[in-house]
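Review this chain:
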Amino acid sequence: MRLLATGLAALIVPAAFTAPAAAAEPPEAITVVEVTASSSDGNLPESTIDGDLTTRWSAQTTDPAGPEWIRWDLGEIRQVGYLGLAWHQGDRRTSQFDLQVSDDGATWTTVVAAASSGGETVDLEAVELGVPPESGLQTRYLRYLGHGNSSGNGWNSINDVRVYPPNPDGAVVEELASSLPEPDPDAEPWTTPGLVEPDGEPYALTPPAPATGQTVNVLDHGADPADGTGDDAAAIRAAVAAAEPGDEVYLPPGVYDLDTTVPADPTTNIALRSGIHLRGAGADETILRSALTPQTPSGKVLRGMGITDVVVADLTVTSTFDGEFSDDPSADAGGGPAYGIFVSNLGVRPSLRVVIDAVTVERYQRMGVRIEKSRDVEVRGSTFRDATSVGGGGAGYGVTIQGTPLEDRYAYPDDSRHNVVRDNTFEGPYLRHAILLQYYTHNNLVVGNRITGTVLDAIDLHGEDEYLNEVRGNTVISSRAAGIALGNTGGTATQHDASGPGNWIHGNVLQGNREGVLVHIGSPETLIENNVVVRGHRSPARVGIEVRHAPRTVVRANTITGNRADGFWGIRLTDDPGDDGHGAGIPTDVLIDGNVVAANSNGVRIDAGSGIVLDDNIVRGNTGEQVRIDDDADVVTEGEPGGDPACDAPSDILDLTDWKLTLPVDDPDEDGQQPLEITQPELDGYTAEPWFVPLPDCDGVRFRNSVDGVTTPNSSYSRSELREMTDGGSELAGWSSTSGTHTMVIDQAITHLPNDKPHVVAGQIHDSDDDVTVFRLQGTSLYVTDGNTSTYHLITDEYELGTRFEAKFVVSDGAVRAYYNGEYQTTIEKDFDGAYFKAGAYTQANCGNSQPCDSSNFGEVVVYDVTVTHE
């Protein structure tokens, strides 16, 4: 026991130790007629009087001077001997609190100050009220002031309360733990990853029951879709309350201001109900705009706890936040609600059969969608962007799936499994993680998502025992950390360390991330296969697949090509320093089998390891080292690395994300002769022999166009050339020479000239009207041009075909500066707008001045790398 006192004392004793004699029984508890609280996170105050230790009240104290509270009303003044309190996670942590009493609910007397729970049981603990429990005191109201818990996170969580009359046997409480649910004795554990049953047979998600009843229009309940016309949340709540299971609540086009919260839950704008769908007119048409701020801890726009058969579709969830966004992971910026959509269990009752479809979630602090201790929940076809914070402690996540910390509950109803995140779009840079799995969640599927520009690991298995999950067919582009990571640092408070066993990472396309796949901190038995890692052309890209302390990892049949960032390695095994005393080690029993590692800066590197097997890998055409194995590493090589490098298309070598391609061939879908244009996403994986193909060694791309090629309307010459785009290739680039700094660097060689007029352009700046300046070869003379002055600046008159060189343009302050192999050449002073870069082969000859007039007469440029930056 422990005795804590400031003034009056409180005696807090775990229930197992309170009874003075085996025969002692607690008296019948006094009935609580009403319970209220200062706040909650959706775990409501009435859960403390339902007799169920699996439900709770929770609220987070963020200001010690203003603690969260819960108040129990006995209906009249009664003689109270002591309390029985059961705390959430009461066997893992202590909770700090004061207790007050009042006769009228207005004037309060503190009877317990600076007290702490025992920290040894989830059952009721006896709490004395500063007087002997045999005599007690008189009061009508009791108020608990919560000062957080020993984890240091400010949360106050009470599962149950009993108010006892005086007892001559002392502070004896009931034993409730025996009523806790027992695990299913027939439950079998899972051993196969993905959406499967325990026996490995496929599992099909059960969809929500369809809406077959009435359509309840929120306008009929007083909502006003006009922007800024006052609170609409109450009207939407009224519509949800009026609906019956099987009905659909419909929100017509408009902006709905959510200024108020659920009366019993001040953290939630709208509470979802089982069997009732919520549908808008489209994510661009129906906007739910929450006024929740960080001053409401755990604020939620839409909340469903223990719900079933619910669809939320075709709307946007946003907030009134209008501050600056930050992509600094150490900053504490933020605003808006904590959560966009919150789906969780209620006690041991999970949420089941919930679909979130075609929804946009933005301007939230922590998580766009949170799925906790639930099953058969699917998030699909939705967009996540613009989190207001990407700082630590759970900020800036797109979708999270989580189970129970430190406990695998596969045999319990609230097990976290069989959830799906499918075909969504995650738009950085204001996302810390796009998709995160944690806390013993298992057999979930993450598939077909497109993720760009996250601050940290895009798909993060968060190092808290998540296991047997399948991550398949996702595209991850330009994460500042890993595209996919298993295991996580984070210190002892949450014990981030290893992911669980058996996670399956396959069929993903990982482009330009710092690491394509990272496995560390002791995460065991991960299968990494058939992934493609490409376009790591610049920092922070450093490795395709990195395995640290990750026992029995299998790296099989992956393709890692065309990653040219300085120091990049295709596959690397290395020491793991661990984190805060756990997770350190070296790779052990790792199989690297049947991978293609070609045309990168470097191939395969093994710095440390035991029981490492290299078997039948193709490692060739990397510009630096092919294979490096440390002398102290225990490695068995079966079959010599080598074979033909594999690059199926130019996009395996060059980063073509923000380009389109023009070719000297006719577009069959256009009337008359028009050159064929290839845009994203078709440009990914596209090749056209002989005009646009990778070199056999996968170290460059050949651009060729013949004198008889099809020309663009404003030119007499054909081209095989890239044109700069933006937004992933969806929009034409157009910038100004007087604003910002714009740079293009081309690593290239001019390899063939047409007959008679041996002129080729290899890199240019174009404005809204015409070319501004180009690199132009005329015979053996290489020039920088100025508009129509083709011989403006001579670089060399002794250029030999096939000589590799670097061409560079830097545009700023109304001037273009040209460089050749890093040496300054000339400056062209000119103000221009609507500008864009071009790279490839633009032959300056046609059938009127060059013969023969066929495809054997051509210009050709090999591009080894091209980069564009705008600052």
